[in-house]
Amino acid sequence: AKPAPTTARLVDNRMLSLPGAGKEVRRFTLDTSGTPLTYEAGDALGVRPVNSLGLVAEWLAVTGLDGSTGVQVNGVGAIPFAEALHRHLDITRISSDLLRFVSERARDNRELKKLLRPDNKDGFAQWSWGRQAVDVVAEYAVRASAQEWADVFKRLQPRQYSISSSPLVDPHRISLTVSVVRYENLHGRPRGGVCSPFLADGEPDMEVPVFVQRSPHFRPPADDSTPMIMVGPGTGVAPFIGFLEERRALGHRAPNWLFFGEQHRATDFYYEDELTGFLEDGVLARLDTAFSRDQRAKVYVQDRMREHGPELWHWLQDGARFYVCGDASRMAKDVDRALRDVAVTHGGMSEGEAAAYVKQLAADKRYVRDVY
């Protein structure tokens, strides 16, 4: 069962990426005063967003339906269609159910039928790029009743973000580090994610329904003599800001090492001031950065790990815990590979021994990941 949501207030919305950046990355701070919400560094915050009113209006225009028409939504009951679109239904994602629904009602459904083939997942993903559900319905001009649409949409799900703060700094402030999803569809209309623009475009002091998702496996070391190595490129740096705040607040003396990466140092060095502060006061012993597009050959965090392999191996031999946060599809695999390479090159292990060593680190909870 999901924890019951409570309401926090959006009290700070700060742009982390600088003008000219390819991404819009922000730090959001929520005030939980007066709520029973508690959290620990390493936890995630679940946010329950609503769809934008502009998108709801577009859906009503495209479907030709009246927003005041009553519909039944499972677990909610009878409500006006416009409210269902705004608060309860996932009206952005192109699901296979939606595609099938449109295909059954479209005049010419040859392309849709091809996209729905089980062996065409890549084609489906490619076709969906730059389109949202409303674009598909507009393209095929299908007609259905409000209830039929309400039945085909999935329920709007909460989004989870790694928490970027420590309760030891302020137990009633929770910060998040979020890449805001915005793009244009094939006709140049602005499109976006559900939750990140909901936060980014929210009024100051907006009420946000939230809950804490515990991550008991993902905590900074409790022992003040355990070194910590963190690999957090992009928004993967999020939990490590909280980890470093926590170790500073506890006065832990063990050394900490962060690998951070992004595209350009000039625009994408999130938390540069804070990280410089951690270096100056000794909380961060080492900071190694990889800005992939600042030179001809792309350089990533895993390349920096290999470059500093002897030192990395030395830290691991000293009992360091190794943390990874960020993209599961590529980065986490590349970092895992680099970790094994370091064990081979600097630990004198065979491939098989290195794989077993890394597996054992994970079993001993010394290699932990928060990947998505």
UniProtKB/TrEMBL annotation:
Gene3D superfamilies noted in UniProt: NADPH-cytochrome p450 Reductase, Chain A, domain 3, Nucleotide-binding domain of ferredoxin-NADP reductase (FNR) module, Translation factors
Cofactor(s) the record lists: FMN; FAD
Enzyme Commission number(s) from the entry: 1.8.1.2
Classification via CDD domains: SiR (cd06199)
Catalytic activity as recorded in UniProt: hydrogen sulfide + 3 NADP(+) + 3 H2O = sulfite + 3 NADPH + 4 H(+)
FAD-binding FR-type domain boundaries: 3-221
Protein name: assimilatory sulfite reductase (NADPH)
GO biological process terms, semicolon-separated: cysteine biosynthetic process
InterPro entries given in the database record: CysJ-like_FAD-binding, FAD-bd_FR_type, Flavoprot_Pyr_Nucl_cyt_Rdtase, FNR_nucleotide-bd, NADPH_Cyt_P450_Rdtase_alpha, OxRdtase_FAD/NAD-bd, Riboflavin_synthase-like_b-brl
Keywords: Amino-acid biosynthesis, Cysteine biosynthesis, FAD, Flavoprotein, FMN, NADP, Oxidoreductase
Pfam families: FAD_binding_1, NAD_binding_1
CC terms in the record's Gene Ontology section: cytosol
EC class (word): oxidoreductase
MF terms in GO: flavin adenine dinucleotide binding; FMN binding; sulfite reductase (NADPH) activity
Species in which this protein is naturally found: Streptomyces spongiae
